[in-house]
Amino acid sequence: MLFALVLVLLWSIDADAQCAMCKAANExxxxxxxxxxxNEGILYLMGIPYILLGVLAYLFFRKQIGGFFREFxxxxx
Length: 77
Known about the structure:
Blueprint: H1 2-10, H2 20-32, H3 35-75
């Protein structure tokens, strides 16, 4: 089992995991030296869910912590 895990982790395969449109855009961007825009777009799309989750977690925990401090203050009056 451990041998199989090590083998899977050390064995790398090149994968073409792009859709046809992304591949065509990247190939044409290499000719025009504007591939940075595509990479920035990918990072933008990747970052949005993390930002939304962070905002939701902040709002949830702010409400929970506020309730905790109100309850704590009521106990010690």
